User: What shape does this take?
Amino acid sequence: MKTISKVLILLTWFWQMAGVMGKRSLSATSLVTCMDNSQISPTYFNVTFNPDDRSLKYSIDLTTEINAKVEAFVQVYAYGFLIIEKNVDMCSLGWKQFCPIYPGTMQVESIEYISEEYVKEIPGIAYTVPDIDAVVKVIVKDQSDGKQLSCMQASFTNGKTVEQTGAKWATAVIAGLGLLIAAVLSTFGNSTAATNISANSVSLFLYFQSVVVVSMQNVERVPPIASAWAENLAWSMGLIRVKFMQEIFRWYVQSTGGSPTLYFTGTTSQILVQRALNHLRDVHEFASNNRIVNYAKRSLDFSLQSNSNLIVLRGIKRIGYNSHIEPTSIVATGFTFFVFFGYLLVIILIFTKQILDLLIRFKKINPNRLSHFRSSFRLILKGSLLRYLYIGFTQLVILSLWEFTQNDSPALIVLAVILLILVLGVVVYSYWRVVKLASLSIKEYNNPAAVLYGDSKVLNKYGFCYTMFQAEKYWFGIVLIGYNLLKAIFIGLCQYSGKVSALVIFILDLAYTIYLIIQAPYLNKPTNILNYLISVVVTVNSFLFLFFSDLFGQPAPVSSIMGWVFFILNAAFSFCLLMMIIAFITFILISKNPDARFAPARDDRTSFQRMSSVKHRSYNNKQDNQGANELLALGLAAQDHSNNWESEMYKLNNISSSSNDQKNHLTPSLEQEKFEVNEINSSENSNDTGQQPQTIGSKLKGKLSRGLSFKAGKGEKGTPTDKNTKNSKITRISDTLLDDNQDNYADEEKDVVNTKPRSFPKDNSATPINQHYRHDSNISAGGFSSYSNNQPTNTNDIL
Assistant: This one.
């Protein structure tokens, strides 16, 4: 108890020190009119209040038509609630500039000290709550007759915000680390661990994108706390500010026929001159965020729009401006970082490949290490780029479509067209190939997993489309990409109608969530539950934005409170997702068998995969591990088929044990089998009549073939179907585990999948063991099973 008390005291002391060291202040950088025909028109406003010394430093530039002594009626709102209401005589304050007010232009920069009476009325929480939603409304009246002359409104901030650079880096690094770990594991084969962490990392990344996408809607007002949290995740849409790059983008837009905005480059003197001349197109942005819009419906019934003295930014422009990116540079920034990270991905993969080759050449590592990665490098590279395009699909579509409505410059329009065609073409083609291959697999084997998972080249290249789903629901990726495409269309093209986009996005999110729960398409139950939660949170976000769009005309406190709901919900959920990814990464790094940490997929994909786990990576070396391959195939067959599996194991065990004394002949190579078949053929040709006594050669032949018979199509013992055949028969299940260099459903040279189905010869002479037919070794597609059905593997029947 004493230790706990000391810790609490220490934390309290740190909290107090943080409050002391953090300078308390309230500041405002925007002042707008809140009535028609206002006789005071502010053009520049910057006010900072320090409660410690009660100083009020202000710099004001305004135009007035008033010629009288005035008084101000001040109202202070916090989260839409009226907390302070007071009449202030401007002459009693001693501010000579405002007592009286004369027509003309007024430029004032001064410091005043506020009475302690007024300072005590400000609650202390106003200085500590991040992204405070506070606004001050000032109604100016004629002191003589009480006539309202002007109305002005300013939003305040205390300098504390949930938008933190550390939060941006933490979310980006953890999400990227999850994708990196999944990529590393995939080099050992598409194991359960790699598939699970890849699916969860992609889901996390898409969730981050969905938070930014919903915040890109051009709604009437987004509460400050909600807007600030969305800025923490803007990096997921490529909105990353680099100062020198912004200068390049501004130059590029101007040099290619555009007119770049200059909201971040104007100085105070330039702004004052331009505003005095009423040339305000390219001036400093006074409404730096959307906290200036419609705060208290019961008192402020208006909607701010851009005018000669004010530029109001909403939607994508607001997200970009809060990231300190000029509106005309948003598209260029998103495109540039997408291409940059794509090049970085390629460079890392090529560099890794070259390093491995050098280490093998200098005999620093075993040549059999990472052989799957090296032998399938081209397909892994292409598959990685396709997955990268899939992740950036929403970003590219939104920015490209939005650029069509902005026309920042002709060059950016051309880039938008090229990237839009690229991402749509590649993604649509990939899903079309997956559907076609799955249909072929169902037609030939009554199971889509036979080709989708049995052919390693198909899996490496197009696996991003379906590996996160169950094998029989490979098509759900089309639903997901179509859902993201519809959202991107409405976000990119409905920037001038926030209510329409908010309603459509909510309907899409709700429909997708319901359909997702009905289908339960992901590879296992935990992954399904995770995606249920993500989809529910995304739907709640879109529901909250219905209120932010002012679709229901609700009072201002409703939107302000829902802003906090948005922040708490998404911050807590993001924290849980990040902790989950960290836990997965930890399990993989410290576990000798990472696959054991994850629930297996609810299908029979492992029965068709050449390497189903990281722990089986040593089986890639065929020459040294034929016996191990025998046992691996035996286990896979038993796992895939629960009927009569025990008798099958005993059969294969008896066959293997019959030659334990001849280890070298336990699993003869294909060349040996060809020799045996040729020897059988020659023996049959030389013995046309009757059964001849066995010679020493025939006994040796029988020993090598382990007593297995080769039957012809007519069922006659020892008679081959075709005497001129060049292909040997596979006599063991392990022979279906072919090397990646052998022929399969993907043409390595052209790197395209054959559209014409291969005809697998049905040989009745093949020895069946529980209906596992042995086909020709040169056409075995990565270990297909002719018996597998669409039902999930029953793991309870395994030894």
Q: What stands out?
A: The two ends are 51 Å apart (CA to CA). Residues 55 and 113 are 4 Å apart (CA to CA). The longest helix spans residues 410-445.
